[in-house]
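Support request from a user on the community tier.

User writes: "When I paste my structure tokens into the form, the page sometimes reloads and wipes my input. The last time it worked, I copied everything first. Here is what I submitted, just in case something in the input itself triggers the reload:"
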């Protein structure tokens, strides 16, 4: 298939494209990253079309937005989308796959020639996301980043323009279904993880189990942006009540909104800051359990990484937690905005160390690999079936699937 993937950032596009190329597809990535940066992820330069000026300006206005609260969405997103639309209309495509926010001008282009228009929504339905984050803003009593009214209307138009809406978790899938979107218009594509990077050796697992059995403070690891959307208010209460009995380590950038809370918690938890993706594996090896009380996430790749690292996981239902965690076997899925539920589970871990060590064993021995090759295979099948629906073909009349 001839596939165009349009992403105004990295997201998982940079992981998916190389695997689709290996599968024999003709793939072009449209991005606002410079070509040299894209090449670091294994995407051949001849498969890349870039709009780097947009990337530079996007980062600049993003910093300005953080300082002032001003929104530049109505200018910055259509700018990239119009550029991509001009590029795409020069050729015919089997599949055009664009991220929400930059899809409207592409799919409104009358001269676009494609058999399949797929839109990628990395989070829950934007109305659901907005409602969850608006409620969180009331709870934390300060402004937090959330979709603007302009963006909500724009994304809903993009949903209508696409043949199919691709989401990354059952939580996101259900959020669309509950908004009245027919299941036939939805496609679920769980992501993968670089198993080779995060999969621990047997001695790491033995050291973790020995540490748990020794009675030493259990090491609680968090990886991700430190912000209210990821459950910062709950994390503050959890750390405040349990810091004398557990060792907490936070890996990831501290958002401006979180600086005052982080300053107050520095004596009770370790805040390492952002670490390059390729250097995260030792941090996962450090932990005994993984905590992620997110308020809203379409997927949360760190959960896949923690799962690959054989860490028992404590997370919420508002992400890919229900898809990745086997309840009571490899972790727990807990309600959002309920820090006491997380505290109770941490206390259970402390008082049931033998069972916790068994969970580590289960997480390690029963982990099922899902890497980017698997994601590419599923993406291919979803696109092929969508094209078949559009042209009225049966499954048996489609071209044979490429061999692995």
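"...and here is what came back when it finally went through:"
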């Amino acid at each position: 298939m001839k596939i165009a993937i349009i992403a105004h950032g990295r997201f998982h596009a940079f992981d998916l494209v190389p695997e689709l190329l290996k599968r024999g597809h003709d793939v072009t990535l449209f991005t606002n990253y410079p070509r040299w940066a894209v090449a670091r992820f294994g995407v051949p330069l001849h498969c890349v079309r870039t709009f780097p000026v947009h990337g530079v300006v996007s980062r600049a206005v993003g910093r300005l937005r953080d300082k002032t609260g001003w929104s530049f969405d109505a200018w910055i997103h259509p700018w990239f989308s119009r550029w991509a639309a001009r590029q795409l209309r020069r050729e015919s495509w089997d599949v055009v796959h664009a991220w929400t926010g930059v899809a409207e001008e592409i799919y409104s282009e009358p001269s676009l020639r494609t058999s399949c228009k797929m839109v990628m929504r990395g989070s829950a339905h934007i109305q659901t996301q907005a409602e969850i984050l608006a409620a969180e803003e009331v709870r934390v009593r300060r402004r937090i980043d959330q979709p603007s009214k302009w963006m909500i209307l724009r994304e809903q138009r993009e949903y209508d323009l696409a043949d199919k809406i691709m989401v990354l978790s059952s939580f996101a899938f259900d959020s669309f279904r509950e908004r009245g979107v027919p299941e036939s218009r939805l496609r679920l594509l769980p992501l993968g993880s670089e198993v080779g990077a995060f999969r621990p050796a047997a001695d790491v697992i033995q050291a973790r189990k020995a540490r748990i059995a020794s009675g030493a403070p259990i090491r609680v690891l968090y990886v991700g942006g430190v912000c209210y959307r990821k459950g910062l208010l709950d994390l503050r209460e959890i750390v405040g009540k349990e810091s004398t009995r557990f060792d907490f380590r936070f890996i990831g950038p501290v958002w401006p909104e979180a600086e005052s809370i982080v300053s107050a918690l520095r004596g009770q938890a370790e805040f390492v800051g952002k670490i390059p993706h390729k250097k995260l594996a030792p941090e996962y090896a450090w932990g005994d359990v993984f905590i992620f009380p997110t308020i809203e996430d379409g997927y949360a790749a760190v959960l896949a990484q923690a799962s690959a690292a054989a860490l028992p996981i404590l997370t919420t239902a508002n992400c890919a937690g229900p898809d990745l965690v086997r309840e009571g076997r490899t972790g727990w899925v807990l309600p959002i905005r309920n820090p006491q539920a997380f505290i109770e589970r941490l206390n259970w871990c402390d008082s049931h160390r033998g069972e916790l060590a068994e969970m580590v064993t289960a997480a390690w021995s029963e982990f099922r690999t899902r890497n980017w090759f698997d994601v590419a295979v599923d993406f291919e099948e979803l696109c092929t079936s969508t094209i078949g629906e559009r042209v009225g073909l049966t499954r048996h009349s489609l071209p044979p699937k490429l061999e692995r």
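Agent notes: The reload is a front-end session timeout and is unrelated to the input. The chain has two domains: 2-192+372-397, 195-365. Residues 206 and 361 are 9 Å apart (CA to CA). Escalated to web team.
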